[in-house]
C-alpha cells in the first residue's frame, strides 16, 4: 500500500473504530435484548443466537458452494442431484420444522413461565403515559405511574391493556414484547433476575408523542421490595418546610388534583399519572425528563412545549417562586 492508500485506509478506519465501540456498548445497558436480566429475555436471547449463528453458517456455506460452482465445470460438480434434493428440499424442511417445534415450545414456556405468580401488576397504556396498579392478594390495590417496581426472583404477572389506541409494552432486558389492546387484557408473566433499573418503551406507533412514551422498571432484591411496598402505602407526610407547604397549596389552588392523585391528600384525579411518589422515580412524563426540581417546574410551565398535544395543559404560573415551590413539593414526595 502506498502512502496515500495507507492514509485513506486510516482515514476510513478512524471513525469506524469508535462507531464499532459504540455499537458494542449499545448491546449492554438498561434497554437491551442482548443484556438479558429476566428469565423470558434469557430464553429469547438464546433463540436469537441459534437463529443468528445458524443463519450465518448457512449463508457462508451457500456462498462457498456458489463460488465453487462458479469455478468448476458443471459436469464435474459432484452429486448434482443429491445437492438439489438434499440442500434444496430436505435440509430446509428438516431445519425449519425443527425450528418451528422449538418456537412452539418456547412460546408455550414464555406464556406459562411460572405456575404461580406472587401478585399482579395491571399496566394500562394511555396517550402517552402508563398507569400502573399493583394487585397484591389480601391488600388494597396500589396505584402508581410510569415506573414498575418488581422483586427479583419472584414471578409476577403483568396484565396489560389500553385506555385509547393500541400500544405495545416492551422491556427488552426482561421479557418479550406484548400488545396493549383496548378492551382486551393480555398477560405477560415475568421473572426479573437481576436487581437494577431497566427501560421500557412503547413499541407500537400510537400518535404524535409515541417516541416520548417510555417507562422505567426498577428491580429490587425481594426483601427490599416488601419494605418498598409497605412504604408506598403510607400517606405522604405534611410538608416539613413553609416553602414546601406553599408548593402544596399552589398545587391545589391551580386544580392539579382534578387530574392527579396524591395518596393521603384530597387529590384523587384519575386522568393523569398518580404523583404520590413522583420524587422517587427515575424519570418524568414517561421517560421524557430526569426527575429534578427544575425539570418538574419546566414540565408544569411547558408541558405542551416539551410534549406537544399531550393531555396536560401548560400552566402559566407567572410567579417563579410559586412554580419552584410546587416543583419542590412534588420532588419531595418519595
Ligand atoms: C387535564 C388534566 C391535567 C391537569 C389539570 C394537570 N395535569 Fe399533570 N399530567 C396530566 C397528564 C395526562 C400527564 C401525563 C402526560 C404525558 O406524559 O403524556 C401529566 C403529567 C404530569 C407530571 C409528570 C408525571 C409523571 O408520572 O412523570 C407532573 C409532575 C404533573 N403532571 C404535574 C401537574 C401539576 C403540578 C399540575 C397543576 C399545576 C397538573 N399536572 C395539572 C394531566 C393533567
Ligand atoms: Cu404508545
UniProtKB/TrEMBL annotation:
It is found in: Membrane. It catalyses: 4 Fe(II)-[cytochrome c] + O2 + 8 H(+)(in) = 4 Fe(III)-[cytochrome c] + 2 H2O + 4 H(+)(out). The keyword Transmembrane applies. GO terms for molecular function: copper ion binding; cytochrome-c oxidase activity; heme binding; oxidoreductase activity. Residues 242-334 form the Cytochrome c domain. It is a multi-pass membrane protein. GO terms for cellular component: membrane. Subunits I and II form the functional core of the enzyme complex. Electrons originating in cytochrome c are transferred via heme a and Cu(A) to the binuclear center formed by heme a3 and Cu(B). NCBIfam families: CoxB (TIGR02866). This is Cytochrome aa3 subunit 2. It comes from Azospirillum humicireducens. The lineage of its organism: Bacteria, Pseudomonadati, Pseudomonadota, Alphaproteobacteria, Rhodospirillales. The gene is coxB.
Amino acid at each position: 500500500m502506498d502512502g496515500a492508500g495507507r492514509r485513506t485506509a486510516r482515514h476510513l478506519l478512524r471513525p469506524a473504530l469508535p462507531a464499532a465501540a459504540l455499537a458494542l456498548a449499545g448491546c449492554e445497558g438498561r434497554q437491551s435484548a442482548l443484556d438479558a436480566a429476566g428469565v423470558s429475555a434469557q430464553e429469547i436471547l438464546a433463540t436469537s443466537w441459534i437463529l443468528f449463528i445458524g443463519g450465518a453458517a448457512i449463508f457462508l456455506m451457500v456462498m462457498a458452494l456458489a463460488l465453487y460452482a462458479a469455478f468448476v465445470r458443471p459436469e464435474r460438480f459432484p452429486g448434482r442431484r443429491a445437492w438439489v434434493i438434499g440442500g434444496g428440499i430436505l435440509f430446509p424442511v428438516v431445519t425449519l420444522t425443527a425450528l418451528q417445534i422449538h418456537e412452539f415450545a418456547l412460546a408455550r414456556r414464555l406464556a406459562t413461565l411460572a405456575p404461580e405468580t406472587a401478585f399482579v401488576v395491571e399496566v394500562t397504556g394511555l396517550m402517552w403515559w402508563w398507569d400502573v396498579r399493583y394487585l397484591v392478594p389480601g391488600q388494597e390495590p396500589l396505584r402508581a405511574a410510569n415506573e414498575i417496581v418488581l422483586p427479583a426472583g419472584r414471578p409476577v404477572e403483568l396484565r396489560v391493556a389500553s385506555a385509547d389506541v393500541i400500544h405495545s409494552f416492551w422491556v427488552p432486558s426482561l421479557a418479550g414484547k406484548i400488545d396493549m389492546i383496548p378492551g382486551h387484557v393480555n398477560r405477560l408473566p415475568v421473572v426479573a433476575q437481576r436487581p437494577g433499573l431497566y427501560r421500557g418503551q412503547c413499541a407500537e406507533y400510537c400518535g404524535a408523542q409515541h417516541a416520548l412514551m417510555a417507562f422505567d422498571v426498577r428491580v429490587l432484591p425481594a426483601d427490599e421490595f416488601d419494605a418498598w411496598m409497605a412504604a408506598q402505602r403510607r400517606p405522604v407526610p405534611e410538608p416539613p418546610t413553609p416553602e414546601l407547604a406553599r408548593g402544596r397549596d399552589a398545587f391545589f389552588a391551580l386544580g392539579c388534583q382534578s387530574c392527579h392523585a396524591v395518596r393521603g391528600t384530597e387529590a384523587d384525579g384519575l386522568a393523569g399519572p398518580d404523583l404520590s411518589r413522583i420524587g422517587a422515580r427515575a424519570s418524568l412524563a414517561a421517560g421524557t425528563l430526569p426527575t429534578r426540581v427544575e425539570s418538574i417546574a419546566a414540565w408544569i410551565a411547558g408541558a405542551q412545549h416539551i410534549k406537544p398535544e399531550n393531555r396536560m395543559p401548560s400552566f402559566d404560573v407567572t410567579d417563579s417562586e410559586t412554580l419552584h415551590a410546587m416543583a419542590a413539593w412534588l420532588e419531595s414526595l418519595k
